[in-house]
């Protein structure tokens, strides 16, 4: 059975992607959680994950003697290993588009990711309002999401980006969490998609376990004095 090494569920958006993918698809795996204590070279986190992954980052998938890091590589490996689960769209053009938007998320949306770090247990509408007012790049990132998701939902008829659940929905699940945490303004049909993603069993399981962590890390939350 493959092992998936992840960080704190409340904060680790990159860990969330492959975990949700596997859980939502019903693929069995062993979870190995490596707690964030800091990201310094001598931290317990870096020592623990560095023994598995040369980059010293999560997530990492270990399947027998194979070690796969980077979320896109993990997603591709899982899709190829479990083809019956149809984790990419079956249509070639839709599949190419799904890969394109995942790659765009992988390397883009830097303003949204920087200014609105994932924090599942928090509700920060006041912080979100200030970010929305002051950060034009965040507004641009959200507009790109609205345009992208609107086109896909219209083209494929929903309820998810390509109709049924795919890697693309797992990939954007942490973005949905950010939009909800910071109450960033989006049109009603996009807010509905966010709620549908949050209600997916795999996503809901992640949310529930993130809420149960109760592990406030001040270096992850410079905008808060402590948990609510």
Spatial separation of the terminal alpha carbons: 38 Å
Mean pLDDT across the residues is 95
- Tell how many strands the DSSP assignment holds: 4
What string, H for helix and E for strand, traces the elements in order? EHEHEEHHHHHHHH
Strand content: 5-15%
Strand order of the largest sheet: 2-1-3-4
The CATH architecture of the largest domain: Up-down Bundle
Number of helices: 10
Structural class: alpha+beta
Largest sheet: 4 strands, mixed
Please describe the topology of this protein.
Elements: E1 3-6, H1 13-25, E2 30-33, H2 44-50, E3 60-63, E4 66-69, H3 71-81, H4 92-107, H5 110-115, H6 125-134, H7 136-156, H8 167-181, H9 188-199, H10 201-213
Provide an overview of this structure:
With 228 residues, the protein is an alpha+beta fold. It folds into two domains: 3-85, Glutaredoxin (3-Layer(aba) Sandwich), CATH 3.40.30.10; 92-208, Glutathione S-transferase Yfyf (Class Pi), Chain A, domain 2 (Up-down Bundle), CATH 1.20.1050.10. The protein is 54% helix and 7% strand. It has ten helices and four strands. The chain has helices spanning 13-25, 44-50, 71-81, 92-107, 110-115, 125-134, 136-156, 167-181, 188-199, 201-213; strands at 3-6, 30-33, 60-63, 66-69. A four-stranded mixed sheet has the order 2-1-3-4, with helices on one face. Strand 1, helix 1 (13-25) and strand 2 form a beta-alpha-beta unit. Helix 1 packs across helix 8 (167-181) and helix 4 (92-107) packs across helix 8 (167-181). It is globular and about 45 Å long. The model has no long low-confidence stretch (mean pLDDT 95).
């Amino acid at each position: 059975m493959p092992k998936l090494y992840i960080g704190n569920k409340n904060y680790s958006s990159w860990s969330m992607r492959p975990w949700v993918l596997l859980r939502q698809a019903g693929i069995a795996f062993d979870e190995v959680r490596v707690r964030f204590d800091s990201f310094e070279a001598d931290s317990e986190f870096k020592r623990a994950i560095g023994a598995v992954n040369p980059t010293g980052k999560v997530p990492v998938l270990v399947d027998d003697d194979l070690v796969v890091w980077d979320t896109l590589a993990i997603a591709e490996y899982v899709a190829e290993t479990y083809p019956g689960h149809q984790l990419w769209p079956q249509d070639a053009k839709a599949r190419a588009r799904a890969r394109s938007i995942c790659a765009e998320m992988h390397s883009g949306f830097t303003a949204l990711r920087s200014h609105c770090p994932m924090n599942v247990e928090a509700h920060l509408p006041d912080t979100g309002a200030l970010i929305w007012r002051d950060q034009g790049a965040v507004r641009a990132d959200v507009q790109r999401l609205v345009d992208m998701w609107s086109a896909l939902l219209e083209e494929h008829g929903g309820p998810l980006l390509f109709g049924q659940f795919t890697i693309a929905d797992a990939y954007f699940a942490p973005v949905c969490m950010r939009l909800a945490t910071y109450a960033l303004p989006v049109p009603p049909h996009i807010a509905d998609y966010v709620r549908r993603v949050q209600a997916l069993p795999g996503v809901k399981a992640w949310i529930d376990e993130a809420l149960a962590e109760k592990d406030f890390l001040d270096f992850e939350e410079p905008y808060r004095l402590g948990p609510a």
